[in-house]
Design brief:
By secondary structure, the protein is α+β, with helices and mostly antiparallel strands. It contains 3 helices and 3 strands, in the order E-H-H-E-E-H. 47% of the residues lie in helices and 18% in strands.
Length: 60
């Protein structure tokens, strides 16, 4: 599956990157995942093009 950066996804969703990252961490937006490895403090964000497109179709 094709992946999208948080910056690109935020631009397409017309929101800032910090908000998008927050929504992914809270599992409130079904376009990908926020992963935090054990013992680490930072998150890794995975956003899939197909999920983003499907979400945007429903939001429009």
């Amino acid at each position: 599956m094709e992946r999208v950066t948080t910056k690109q996804a935020a631009k397409e969703l017309k929101m800032d990157v910090v908000t998008l990252q927050y929504l992914l961490r809270q599992e409130r937006i079904p376009i990908g995942y926020a992963i935090k490895k054990e013992g680490k403090s930072r998150y890794h964000y995975i956003i899939y093009r197909e999920m983003l497109d499907k979400f945007m179709e429903g939001a429009g």
